[in-house]
Amino acid sequence: MSKKAIIVGSGIAGIATSIRLAKKGYAVTVFEANAYPGGKLSTFSLGAYRFDAGPSLFTMPQFVEELFELCDEDPKHHFEYTKKEVGCNYFWEDGTRLKAYDDSDRFLSEVEQVLGVPSKTLKAYLTKAKKKYDLTESIFLKRSLHQLKSFLNPETVKAILNVRTLEIGKSLHQVNEEQLQEPHLVQFYDRFATYNGSNPYQTPGIMTLVQHLEEHYGTFVPKKGMESITTSLFELAKRQGVVFHFNEKVNEIVVEKRKVLGVKTEKMFYAADQVCSNMDVYPTYQYLLPQVVAPVKTLEQERSSSAVIFYLGISRTFKELDLHNIFFSKDYKEEFKAIFEEQTVSKDPTVYVNITSKDIATDAPTGCENWFVMINTPADKGQDWDALRASIRASFIKKINLILGVNLEDYIVEEDFLTPPMIQQKTQSHQGALYGSSSNDRMAAFLRHPNFSQQIKKLYFCGGSVHPGGGIPLCLLSAKIVSDQIPELL
Predict the structure, then answer these.
(1) Cα 113 from chain centre
(2) Is 168 left (phi over 0), alpha (psi -120 to 50) or beta?
(3) Which pLDDT score is estimated for 427?
């Protein structure tokens, strides 16, 4: 009889973990409280407009393809995507416009022409970012940081000997300001802190490695929308024999004598030899492991940023805009101070606008666009989100009208929104934080919850709230780390 593995939650990391464990010979069951898979990586419609609810582009698609290859399938038969020529368009209110070209030489030329920064300056900066990534990839992204054996290898020794190169003692903003100097370019690269919900004025300088990931690997858009990442892997999991129980919430992970026995749902008890929680680690301990002593220091870490998101059906197309656009605030420092220190929202926030209908004809009627408008906000600490949402809406519409010279409200025919409390309700992300804890501490990487329980045998954790962090690539890597902890069945 096959040994049983249970996954709590069908986010992208939970689905990936289920595939890996099924391939190892386990009979895998996934329990999901919602009626659909994917967590934040899901979809919905407003009238004739289709929207991706969460992330709107991704990098490192090889981690998705790897799962198909693991199952001896050709990923091209199930999941198609295109590489973007321009990762994002950037707009400043002083009239500056910058295109982040995928081609490195072309981007270096763009920065030199538009911002006056010599190519050699930016090239040196990106070379340092690559070195940080190369020094830390094998010890941080591909292994658990919470096991002694992870530190007893040549790669770790090499990273320790090059610790000054990692620039852990400086903030990301300090590194950017010292090495780049030009204000627009500093703000441009400070923004990369938002990729894991952190503050560039606090997160350590090692985080320039995120810049390397986007510059080196590029950015990608699935041909059928971001939710096709979820759909393709969900179907792959089912072909591997994984069983999904939707609308069946897990109420408890059952533990006896420091060992997992299975889970209790609203319907019954299910026995298991291995259990992995893809639920945010905070509510996992709070609700599913009431008898287990919670790691207080880990759970009390500062939350990452959240977001207020507007989904707009627009009754025209905007030739000025490409697929992905950033409208910068005037004072980025004050914006991040608001998000991480004052727990309120800037009156002049940076706006991320994603337009998908130009790539996917079914996303909007002919001659129309669907807009995903995201504004970084604090996690939910009891703010008046109805009032804040109204203020943010007025602010971003004013900003876009000013930069594009239009009256955007004349073209809004469908509208919905998402706030931090709603994000928590839909995805169980504590306080609506998009990436679990922030990386606003130089030791943040070591403070994230491990992918296994140090108290309970056969209990594991995957997803954005645990090591190695949030975002699609890191969530998929967390699934791989969990799988490496669990023995293969002969």
Answers:
(1) 32
(2) alpha
(3) 93
What is the DSSP track for 127-184? HHHHHHHHHHIIIIISS-TTSGGGTSSHHHHHHHHTHHHHTTTSBHHHHHHHHH--HH
How far apart (Å, rounded) are the C-alpha atoms in residues 415 and 400? Answer: 17
What is the per-residue pLDDT across 333-365, written as a single tens digit (0 to 9) for each?
A: 888 888 887 667 888 899 999 998 777 778 999
Last residue of a domain, one of 154, 189, 217: 217
Q: How many domains does the chain have?
A: 2
Q: Are residues 296 and 445 in the same domain?
A: yes
Nearest to 462 by CA among 15, 3, 4, 5: 15
User: Is 92 contained in some domain?
Assistant: no
Residue 451 lies in a domain: yes
Residue 423 has which token pair? 């994000």
Residues 176 and 129 in one domain: yes
Examine residue 154 and say whether the peptide bond preceding it is cis (omega within 30 degrees of 0).
no
Asked if residue 213 and residue 128 are part of one domain, the reply reads yes
412: helix, coil or strand?
strand
Model confidence band, residue 157 (pLDDT cutoffs 50, 70, 90):
low
Task: State the Rg of the chain over Cα.
Answer: 22
From 163, 186, 217, give the residue that closes a domain. Answer: 217
Q: Is there a single domain that holds both residue 154 and residue 210? A: yes
- Specify the higher pLDDT residue, 152 or 287: 287
pLDDT tens for each residue of 74-93 = 999 999 999 999 999 999 99
DSSP annotation of 284 reads I
- Residue 179, domain extent: 121-217
Global model pTM greater than 0.90? yes
Average pLDDT, the chain: 91
Asked whether 351 and 435 are in contact (CB, 8 A), the reply is: no
Pick left, alpha or beta for residue 327 (phi over 0 → left; psi -120 to 50 → alpha; otherwise beta): beta
How far is Cα 148 from Cα 146, in angstroms, rounded to an integer? 7
10 and 68 both lie in a single domain:
yes
| Cβ atoms of 125 and 155 closer than 8 Å | no
Same domain for 209 and 243?
Answer: no
What are the tens digits of pLDDT across the range 7-50?
Answer: 999 999 999 999 999 999 999 999 999 999 999 999 999 999 99
